[in-house]
Structures are given as C-alpha cells and as structure tokens.
Design goal:
Helices cover about 40% and strands about 20% of the residues. With about 280 residues, the chain is α/β, with parallel strands linked by helices. The chain is globular, with a radius of gyration of 18 Å. The two termini are about 35 Å apart.
C-alpha cells in the first residue's frame, strides 16, 4: 500500500529489497495501477514518446508506460537496486515487450540521454532526502517543453470510519516508522512546492483514493504486508514487538473489526502532479 522500490539517495530505502518485498510491490501495483493510468493519461503520455521512469523498481509502472507509448515509443527505467532491476527484466520479458530498457544508477548523479519526452515516477519522491534537487537534475534529461509527472501518497488521509482502534494503531505504526526512517508521509501534498523548487511551473494536480465497505477490499492485506516488511525496523527503533503486532493475523483482524462496525476503509490519498519543462 505504501511505497515502490524507489531509488533513494544512496539507497536508504527502509522497506528493503528482498524477494518478499518485490512480491509485495506487485500486489501494491494491483492496488494502484488504475490511479497511475489516470495520471499518465491526463498528463499526456502518448504513443511514440520516449519516457524516463525514475525509481522503476520491479517494472510495474514501466509496463503501464510501455502500453501507452506503444511499439514506436521507448521506456527507460532507472533504479539503484540490481535485484529489483533483475525482477523487472524478467517481468518485461514474460510480457513480451521490447520497448523497455533498464539502467542501474543513483538518481542524484546518473547521466542519461537528453532527448526524453517525459520524466515520470510513482512513489519515489517519498524516500528522497532532497526531492526537488533530484527532480532538477532529472530535468537535464528532458527536452524543452517535455512532460514531468509524479505520483505520491498522503498517508495521513488513510483512515477507517467510524474509528476502528486496530486500524488507527496499524496506520500509526506505519507512519511513525516511515518518519523515523526519513521518509515523508505527506509528500503528495508537497508536490506543488517540489515542482516549483525544481524550476517547473506549478503543476496540475489530482487526488484519488481506494474506499470500500466490503470484506474483499485489498486495503486490509496491503496494511498487513507493509507492516510485515517494516516490522524489523519497528522492532529496532522500539515502535512495536512482533508479539504486539501479530502480523500473521493482522489482515483478518482488520477486516473483521471494520465489518463488525459496518465501517468504511479509506486508503491513503494518491496525489498526482504534472507540469512541463519551460521551453
């Protein structure tokens, strides 16, 4: 539910790079992909474009982009983590796309072509210590007038109605863990500021969220999966113990408590922003 295997500066990515994490990210993509399609469609990703994806992770967003730019376009994904890139290459090969390539490197200093039509990223700025500086560097890869489109969370918007204590406790632990790891849970609300600091015009923005009152909502599992991945860090910094979290039954307990109250689960706001490099 909460993040991509983005390319943080010098790899401060608190969620790690295990096979389990890559599997979690695939499930997360199923949760987010409709919002990502909406963002890229409205921003103007079109057939024939050459698109740079910052922090491509396991390749899920690259596959969306490959469909949108078509065989005459190209997608270049950049990530710091070789394990994630290998998973991305396998996924792309299985899907039969030949318009995607991946490169390993740190977003703060990687040297790339300068003829991209668009630079995009999903849940990557969340982990960067200086997101505006990284974005300013990436603009060097973009043609004048080129598109910049990023999507990130406001985690503080996630909630249950009426209040479900376990839901509140689980979200609170996740948010505290990310903050202690240096990530910004409200980064989506700061996209306007980040774009302007990077030298871009103020962006067009939209906000979407997953909301459900039913037992089949993916949000229960997403919360449990992120908690499982963050649990070693939570234990390290004293936020919770494994016995307190009981992660193996967490999704079922979240589901049961929300349904018992006849409540509604509201996922984090997914905030999209897009603008164009000055000509």
């Amino acid at each position: 539910m909460l993040t991509e295997p983005a390319t943080p500066v010098k790899d401060a990515y608190v969620l790690g790079h295990s096979e389990k994490e890559i599997e979690r990210l695939q499930k997360q993509n199923n949760f987010l992909q409709v919002f990502t399609w909406h963002c890229f469609q409205e921003a103007g990703i079109k057939p024939g474009m050459k698109v740079l994806e910052a922090g491509c992770g396991g390749g899920d967003v690259a596959l969306i982009l490959a469909e949108m730019v078509g065989p005459e376009g190209q997608v270049v994904g950049v990530d710091l983590n070789p394990q994630a890139l290998e998973a991305a290459r396998q996924k792309v090969a299985a899907a039969g796309h030949n318009n995607i390539i991946f490169k390993q490197g740190d977003l703060q200093d990687i040297v790339l072509d300068t003829d991209f039509d668009a630079v995009v990223g999903r849940l990557v700025l969340f982990h960067l210590k200086e997101p505006a500086n990284i974005l300013r560097h990436l603009l060097d890869c973009l043609k004048p007038g080129g598109l910049v489109a990023f999507q990130d969370y406001n985690l503080l918007a996630a909630r249950a109605y009426p209040i479900v204590p376990l839901f509140e406790q689980t979200l609170g632990r996740i948010i505290k863990a990310f903050r202690q790891a240096g990530a910004d849970p409200e980064i989506g609300l700061k996209l306007n500021e980040i774009f302007r600091q990077a030298g871009l015009p103020g962006p067009t923005m939209r906000c979407e969220a997953s909301v459900s009152a039913g037992p089949e909502w993916d949000g229960y599992e997403q919360l449990a999966l992120v908690t499982r991945t963050l649990l070693p860090f939570m234990q390290k910094v004293g936020l919770a113990t494994a016995e307190e979290v009981e992660v193996d039954t967490l999704a079922d307990r979240l589901r049961a408590e929300l349904i018992e109250k006849g409540g509604v689960g509201h996922g984090p706001d997914v905030i999209s922003a897009w603008s164009h490099k000055p000509a």
